[in-house]
């Protein structure tokens, strides 16, 4: 088999990151090796996102930049996958003449066959079929060239919730859960390859297996918790309406489950929540937040919020600001509402102007900054157990050089806070820090989006505080 090079450009959410890994797995069977150079590639795949208008614009600007390459190398194959491909289908071939292949969100398993056909026949193909069952690739994930200790694992696809602003049910299809045994096999395989932490992915993991009667999410978590060699489990995203008591208590019972939950609230106004078709009220949301904090006092809670949803009055917006003050999120992703194809809210009246949306977004960001800083500052002086993920961003840029003590590492706390630190030559056990190791770190300084700390020798930590717990010295 002749060696060929593939470049994969991923836009969007973690699920797309996972899908791109699956795409890479499939392409490997055709003899493609991943490259980070556009110029040397024989195949370019763009894995796209259409959740908001801005993400969609990124796709077209990237594709536009490929015209020059295709001119220089006509045999180059350009494929567009993911949500924009699913949404636009054949229209994409008309709109972007340099594209050879459009493959939808359910076509990843068929991708190798499609690429092979194009390479031989030099034809253009659109495959946006949406079968109602999951077509597994039958290859276990190992295509990531860069060694990673944390990986994503998709446990379900699609969504049945039809929030009125959201395009996902239209581009990712009906909710389908993967077989628990396949998920467990995949994770065991990742662990055998050195992975220490998995993040389970789905649009609404809380309803995993319910429709099919396969299993439940808390049961799946318990089985994953039993996998030897795995250190940490995370999951995203949770829908507040399906956050059960059983799942909440998993934060108490499962030792590997990290103390973080992403629980999108979207709005603090009951009127807007109803128009969004979210099926919970502000009161129910707050009740769940309180329950979570009761069960797991140090749990970090992050959320998503949309500003300027059609019909959002100044009063509704104030309710969102109040909710942010009441909850004090550890982190918040805020978005200006944008119309999406097929989504019901696109047809709603009382649209909010761009200027107003921009102002509201800024107010949310400023308010949240205050709480993010406050939460991070509260950790100064505390001891945290972190999983070392690798060299820090700064160090990766600079290369692995200098004295051991000048090497900067990065990892995350169970509560998902990034911590950077230097290797400590004074403490013998820390002259040899490696990726995937768990290390106790004393937090020295909090910044707005990360913490700075130093490794602490385990002997100095009282017995009983050497595990997950953190304490302020
Ligand atoms: N406009 C703005 N934000 C949106 N999101 C989803 N659809 C839209 C839209 N049409 C946001 C929601 C969701 C996150 C992934 O993206 O907050 O939780
Ligand atoms: Fe979209 Fe709502 Fe489904 Fe999330 S739960 S993917 S916001 S429709």
Overview in brief:
This protein has 473 residues and is α/β, with parallel strands linked by helices. It is built from 15 helices and 19 strands. Iron/sulfur cluster binds at residues 159, 161-163, 166, 168-169, 203-204, 239.
Describe the structure.
This protein is α/β, with parallel strands linked by helices. It folds into 4 domains: 4-127, Methylthiotransferase, N-terminal domain (Rossmann fold, 3-Layer(aba) Sandwich), CATH 3.40.50; 140-258, 2-Layer Sandwich (Transcription Regulator spoIIAA); 269-377, Transcription Regulator spoIIAA (2-Layer Sandwich); 382-472, OB fold (Dihydrolipoamide Acetyltransferase, E2P), CATH 2.40.50.140. Helix content is 33%, strand content 20%. The protein contains 15 helices and 19 strands. A 6-stranded parallel beta sheet has the order 2-1-3-4-5-6, sandwiched between helices. A 5-stranded mixed barrel has the order 15-16-17-19-18. Helix 13 packs parallel to helix 14 (354-377). The relative contact order is 0.08. Mean pLDDT is 91; it is low at 468-473.
CATH topology of the largest domain: Rossmann fold
Strand order of the largest sheet: 2-1-3-4-5-6
Q: What sort of overall outline do the alpha carbons produce when their principal axes are compared?
A: globular
Under the CATH scheme, the architecture of the largest domain is: 3-Layer(aba) Sandwich
- Approximately how much helix is present in the residues? 25-40%
CATH class category of the largest domain: Alpha Beta
| CATH-level-4 superfamily name of the largest domain | Methylthiotransferase, N-terminal domain
Number of domains: 4
Unreliable sequence segments: 468-473
| Radius of gyration (Å) | 23 Å
Q: What is the residue-averaged pLDDT?
A: 91
